[in-house]
Each structure stands twice: as structure tokens, then as C-alpha cells.
């Protein structure tokens, strides 16, 4: 066959549009598969994730392979001009596999062996499962590795969960031995062994945390979560051996998630660590648009936060690998996206750095638990319904924006987010058990920059801080001496650092610092937090800052100020008139400490002052009301500005300088109307 050149889509000039394609659910319906090809053209889609749960269709009996249907899919998709993201099938196993090798089944934290069924539930230590997955992955790589339609590997699906079986207990013990260099005393020290007589005198006594066993040793809980991350990564690394070997130029991803109640990053794995092992960050985003708990703009801010975090994990564009064009089936209430919301929510992803809009799934299933989950093609098989037309509109829009692919944007502000910190702080038996809300607190700090259109990277503690002018580090309870010294270096070299109450309390082993706040922190902040007062949810205090009063709730730190400048004071309670906000110049840089949990109006004022002081600005200023978000990506020649109306009213925005409307091919300047849930994507040439 001629011209079967391999397509390179990542970091190239295409935005991907498509989704999970599960033809294995329709193999007895060739008419349906033929319709798919026609509908793909009409939907303006170009990329399909195939084979995610196809193991039983690929190997119906042990050692009996039926790749022919997948061969056909590769050919027809390719002939149709499409790209394939090929999945490895480990996310769900065939029944024969668990029946023959029960060790692949998970054991839960109650030490109960699970039955075959559902998915995402294999033991991540099982040698048999590792061997079986690697084997089928090798067959897939052998067979399709050189196929010109293959553009990426989708390894497994949404790795998650824990296994507490004997194999995992053994692996955990080995991990512990390794981490503590075979030194049981070091382990007992780190886990504060003598407390409740929990000192070990033999490695064999170590067990994973369990509600029917140990849950009170915080060092153990934290190490277990670290182990789960490492063991999952280790399983993934085993999966990709043949892929790296046989297809070294095909990028590898595995899809990340968000925890959905509050739309925060998934908490079961440390994605910061995982990111080091994958080539392209991808995630599955299912925000509950139009819910009754929060405004559309509030939810949009949370989506922006996750996007900025996942983009910053590798400082490169990410892919939205799954989303729904309408509703999902697993929110408590599954509300359809209102007119324009699908385009708006999709453009928000692109604006924050996604190079794709992909869906779960292409065609709605006929049976089982996802038969009512939104899909591109509904049970009516029609290209005329509202959802299909919304998808086609996104496809056409992405085609017009193809030069956005591969671009990112510079950010002067870094906001630090840390999974380990969340694990430890949540576990901490203290403060308010319900009110710590670490991730939500970081989001509230992020909100100010989001509302002011200032680009932000949400970064890990391991990342390099030196490129940022401002680093915001809220509630970093778990803070190692190593990170402290890196923060100190950042400030010494001229950076501005903002931190808050409940920062720098425990080491990486979740052991408290003794003898007061670590000296380096006292040096850079010029003060010492002596005590943290936790308030009842209905309690309030006030802080005066810059001549105005702001409401405080839940947390207030009582500060002993040495050299720092007092920027704000508490107004009530037994610490009335004592310092609440401080600043301190340290070597070439400056620090700020926010002693209590303050209302958003304070953040606006406070960060507004810092933004002015540091000369931070949006990539391209657009005047607008609250609820409109302006985000930018930057190519070598132009800034691409996304103006997105997350309010329920029409909005007027103002472009002070002429800009080029990339979707309507016209110049815009001055007042421009953006309809409810509307968008504008405009280009501004780079001047130098
Ligand atoms: C996840 C899974 C998909 C599908 C969707 C439904 O993201 O990866 O297989 O179940 O949820 O929203
Ligand atoms: Zn196990």
C-alpha cells in the first residue's frame, strides 16, 4: 500500500477529536460499524482510543487469539483518515483468567478476596497478571506497532485502588525494608513505634493499614499510600516493557482522573510521581455542569485548577482523553449540558493546554451499566440530534484552531500542590476533622489568579521553582527539610513566597518538628507561628488588612513576630490586636505569611497588591465582569486568547487593541458581546 506514512500527532499540528471507540461491543453488527465510519466524518472526529476493555474479544480463551476484528478496525479507521490510540487491556480481565489464576483477584482492606467482575480491580503485585498483561501487550505491539494509524499507547485504564493480598503484603514489606535501609529501628522511629506499644521486633509483623487492624499509625498510612503509588507505577512499567522495546517512537500515556464530588485531583495515587514515567499527561474530565451547589464560574475555576496542575506536571500540553458531550450516568443527578456548554467546556480545556477533546464514548452501549452514559452517537444512531451536532461543532472549531496544537504558555506564578501533604493532613487527628480541606484551600488561592486572568502553573514540590516570580504555598503541613531549603533558596534568589497557617508542621515521615518551627522557615518569614486555633464552623473572627476588615473562619495562627513587618491584625478573641498577616524581606526576595483562613475578598486585595508589586499581568488584558475567564496559549508568532463566558447572561468584554477573531475571521476591537456560555478565540501577533 502506498503513502502509508506514520502519523505523528503529538506535539504536531492537529488537535485531536474523538474518543473511546468500542467496536468490540458491536462485532455482530457490521451495519453499525459501517455507520460509525460515516458518522465519524460528520462528527469531524479524527482519533479513536481502541481496545480499552477488549481482552475477552482479543483472547476469548487462554492462548486463543482473535485479532482479526482489530485488524479490520485499524484498516478502516486508517482508510477513513483516522488515528488510533491503542489501549492495553489490563483494566478489565476475562473471566477465564481469574478462574484459572485466582491470584490476580484483589483482596480488599477488610482482607476479603474479591470475586471476578467489574473492572480496575486486579492485584498489582501478582506475577501471573504481570506476565499475562505483558504478553498480550507484546502481541499488540508486534501486530500493530508499525501500523501507520497508531499514534499513541493508552496503557490500561484509570489505574486506581489498592490490594491487600499476601503478595501485596510481601511487596509492601520489601518496599518498607528498602525505604528504611533494612533498619527496623529507623522504621520504629519513623512510625513512632512505642505509641500504643506498636514497636516491631520483626519485619514479618508489618501489615497494610486496615479498619480491622492498624489505622492509627500515621507514618504507616502515609508509607502505604506511597507504596500503592510505587507498586502501581511498577505494574505500569512492567506493562510497557514490550511497548518501549518494539515501538520506541510511539508515546505512552495512561489516563488520570479527578475525584468528582468536589472536582479535585484523584487522591488514590501521587500523580506527581506517576507523571515522571509517562510521555503525555492525559485525563478524564467529567465536571457536573449546571449543578445546584455552585455557580458555573466556581466549577469552571476548579476545572482550570486541575488543567493547570496536569499541564504543569510535564510543562507541556496534555490531552483530555475522556469527557462527555452531554451527561454522564454516575453523578447523583445526570443533567444534560445546556446549549453552548459543550463548546464552552471543551474550549476551556484547550485554553488551559489540552491538545484534544475526546469522549467516553463514541457509541452509547446498548446494555450494562453505561447504556445511559452520554456518547457521540446515541441509541437513535442519528447525526441530527442536539448532542451529535454539538460534537460536530466542537470538531469544526478544533479544525479552525489547529495551530494551537503544541503551544503552551509562560507563567510567572507557581502554586504548589502536593498529594502526600493531602494524605498526611487528612489523616492528622487534629485541627477541624471536617474543615482542613487542603485541596479546596489551594483552589481558593488559585481562584484569585484565575479571576484576574493571570497565568498560573500548579506545580509539585519536586519541580524547579526558579522560573517563577511568585510561589504560593498554602497549608503545606508536611514539609521536609529538603523542600524548606529549596524554598529558602528560591526566596534568597529574589522570589516572592506566600504561605499560610498549618505549614511546616511535620516531616516527610509525618513526625512533628520539635523545638518550634524549623529555623529556616523562621529565618525566611521573620516570625514564628506559636499556636493554631481551630474554630467551630459557625465561629468568626476578623482581620484588618490595608485599612479594611475581612472575615476569618476555621483557622487562626497566633504569631510571634521577630523581624517581619506586620501587614494585618486579628480583631477579636484573646489574640485580638496581634499579628495575622506578615511580610519579610529575606536576602533578594520577600515572603508573606497569612495566619488565618480568610474570605475571598481578602485574597483579591492581598494578591492584588502582590500582583501590582511584582508587575504580573495577563498575557493580553481583556476587560470583563466576574465569571468571564480569559486564558491564553502562545505560539511562536501569536498569543491565542480564549474569552469564555461562564455566566448565565450575555457579557460585554473590551479589547483595547484590535484582535483577530479566529473562529469568525474578522477583526474585533472595543466592546464585544459574548453570549451566555459563549466564547471568543482571538489572536494577537507577538510584538517582539
Ligand atoms: C471513566 C472510564 C470510562 C467510563 C467513564 C464514564 O472515565 O475510564 O471507561 O467508564 O468513566 O464516565
Ligand atoms: Zn495483591
Structure overview:
With 688 residues, this protein is of the alpha/beta class. The chain has 4 domains: 16-162 and 233-404, Glycosidases (TIM Barrel, Alpha-Beta Barrel), CATH 3.20.20.80; 167-225, no CATH class; 413-614, 3-Layer(aba) Sandwich (Rossmann fold), CATH 3.40.50; 628-685, Golgi alpha-mannosidase II (Immunoglobulin-like, Sandwich). It is built from 17 helices and 27 strands. The strands form 4 sheets. Strands 12, 13, 14, 15, 16, 17, 18, 19, 20, 21 and 22 form an 11-stranded mixed sheet that branches. Strands 5-4-3-2-1-11-10-9-6 form a 9-stranded parallel sheet. The radius of gyration is 26 Å and the shape is globular. The two termini are 46 Å apart. The site of zinc ion has 6 residues, from helix 6.
Describe the global form.
Answer: globular
Task: Label the CATH architecture of the largest domain.
Answer: Alpha-Beta Barrel
Count the strands? 27
**Whole-number total of structural domains:** 4
Helix content: 25-40%
Q: Which ligands are bound?
A: alpha-D-galactopyranose, zinc ion
- Calculate the terminal CA-CA distance, rounded to whole Å: 46 Å
Amino acid at each position: 500500500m502506498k503513502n502509508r506514512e506514520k502519523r505523528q500527532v503529538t506535539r504536531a499540528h492537529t488537535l485531536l477529536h474523538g474518543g473511546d471507540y468500542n467496536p468490540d461491543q458491536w462485532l455482530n453488527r457490521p451495519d453499525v460499524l459501517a455507520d460509525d465510519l460515516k458518522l465519524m466524518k460528520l462528527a469531524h472526529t479524527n482519533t479513536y482510543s481502541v481496545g480499552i476493555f477488549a481482552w475477552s474479544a482479543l483472547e476469548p480463551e487462554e492462548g486463543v487469539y482473535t485479532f482479526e476484528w482489530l485488524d479490520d478496525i485499524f484498516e478502516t479507521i486508517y482508510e477513513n483518515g483516522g488515528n488510533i490510540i491503542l489501549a492495553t487491556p489490563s483494566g478489565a480481565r476475562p473471566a477465564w483468567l481469574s478462574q484459572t489464576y485466582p491470584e490476580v483477584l484483589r483482596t480488599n482492606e477488610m482482607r476479603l478476596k474479591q470475586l471476578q467482575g467489574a473492572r480496575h480491580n486486579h492485584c498489582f503485585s501478582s506475577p501471573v497478571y504481570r506476565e499475562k498483561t505483558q504478553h498480550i501487550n507484546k502481541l499488540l505491539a508486534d501486530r500493530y506497532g508499525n501500523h501507520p494509524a497508531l499514534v499513541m499507547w493508552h496503557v490500561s485504564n484509570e489505574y486506581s485502588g489498592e490490594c491487600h493480598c499476601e503478595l501485596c503484603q510481601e511487596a509492601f514489606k520489601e518496599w518498607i525494608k528498602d525505604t528504611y535501609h533494612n533498619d527496623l529501628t529507623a522504621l520504629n522511629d519513623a512510625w513512632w513505634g512505642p505509641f500504643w506499644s506498636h514497636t516491631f521486633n520483626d519485619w514479618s509483623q508489618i501489615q497494610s493499614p486496615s479498619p480491622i487492624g492498624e489505622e492509627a499509625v500515621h507514618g504507616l498510612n502515609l508509607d502505604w499510600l506511597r507504596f500503592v503509588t510505587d507498586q502501581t507505577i511498577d505494574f505500569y512499567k512492567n506493562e510497557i516493557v514490550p511497548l518501549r522495546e518494539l515501538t520506541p517512537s510511539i508515546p505512552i500515556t495512561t489516563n488520570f482522573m479527578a475525584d468528582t464530588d468536589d472536582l479535585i485531583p484523584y487522591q488514590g495515587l501521587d500523580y506527581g510521581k506517576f507523571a515522571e514515567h509517562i510521555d503525555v499527561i492525559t485525563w478524564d474530565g467529567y465536571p457536573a455542569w449546571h449543578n445546584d451547589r455552585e455557580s458555573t464560574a466556581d466549577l469552571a475555576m476548579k476545572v482550570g485548577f486541575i488543567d493547570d496542575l496536569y499541564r504543569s506536571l510535564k510543562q507541556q500540553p496534555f490531552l483530555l482523553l475522556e469527557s462527555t458531550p452531554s451527561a454522564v450516568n454516575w453523578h447523583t443527578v445526570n443533567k444534560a449540558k445546556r446549549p453552548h456548554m459543550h463548546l464552552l467546556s471543551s474550549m476551556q480545556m484547550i485554553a488551559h493546554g489540552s491538545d484534544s477533546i475526546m469522549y467516553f464514548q463514541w457509541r452509547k452501549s446498548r446494555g450494562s451499566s453505561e447504556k445511559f452514559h452520554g456518547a457521540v452517537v446515541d441509541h437513535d444512531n442519528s447525526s441530527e440530534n442536539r448532542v451529535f451536532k454539538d460534537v460536530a461543532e466542537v470538531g469544526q472549531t478544533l479544525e479552525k484552531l489547529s495551530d494551537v496544537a503544541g503551544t503552551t504558555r509562560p507563567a510567572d506564578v507557581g502554586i504548589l500542590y502536593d498529594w502526600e501533604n493531602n494524605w498526611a493532613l487528612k489523616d492528622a487527628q487534629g485541627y477541624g476533622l471536617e474543615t482542613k480541606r487542603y485541596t479546596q484551600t489551594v483552589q481558593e488561592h488559585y481562584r484569585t489568579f484565575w479571576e484576574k486572568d493571570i497565568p498560573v502553573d500548579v506545580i509539585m514540590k519536586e519541580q524547579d521553582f526558579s522560573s517563577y516570580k511568585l510561589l504560593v504555598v498554602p497549608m503545606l503541613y508536611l514539609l521536609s527539610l529538603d523542600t524548606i531549603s529549596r524554598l529558602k533558596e528560591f526566596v534568597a534568589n529574589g522570589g516572592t513566597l506566600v504561605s499560610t497557617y498549618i505549614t511546616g508542621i511535620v516531616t516527610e515521615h509525618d513526625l512533628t518538628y520539635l523545638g518550634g518551627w524549623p529555623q529556616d522557615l523562621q529565618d525566611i518569614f521573620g516570625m514564628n507561628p506559636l499556636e493554631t486555633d481551630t474554630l467551630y464552623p459557625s465561629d468568626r473572627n476578623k482581620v484588618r488588612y490595608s485599612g479594611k476588615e475581612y472575615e476569618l473562619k476555621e483557622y487562626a495562627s497566633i504569631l510571634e513576630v521577630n523581624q517581619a513587618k506586620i501587614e494585618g491584625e486579628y480583631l477579636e478573641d484573646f489574640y485580638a490586636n496581634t499579628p495575622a498577616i506578615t511580610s519579610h524581606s529575606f536576602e533578594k526576595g520577600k515572603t508573606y505569611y497569612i495566619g488565618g483562613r480568610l474570605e475571598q475578598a481578602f485574597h483579591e486585595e492581598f494578591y492584588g497588591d502582590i500582583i501590582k508589586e511584582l508587575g504580573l499581568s495577563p498575557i493580553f488584558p481583556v476587560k470583563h465582569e466576574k465569571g468571564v475567564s480569559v486564558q491564553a496559549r502562545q505560539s511562536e508568532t501569536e498569543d491565542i486568547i480564549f474569552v469564555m463566558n461562564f455566566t448565565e447572561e450575555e457579557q460585554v468584554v473590551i479589547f483595547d487593541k484590535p484582535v483577530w477573531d479566529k473562529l469568525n475571521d474578522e477583526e474585533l476591537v472595543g466592546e464585544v458581546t459574548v453570549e451566555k456560555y459563549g466564547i471568543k478565540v482571538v489572536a494577537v501577533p507577538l510584538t517582539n
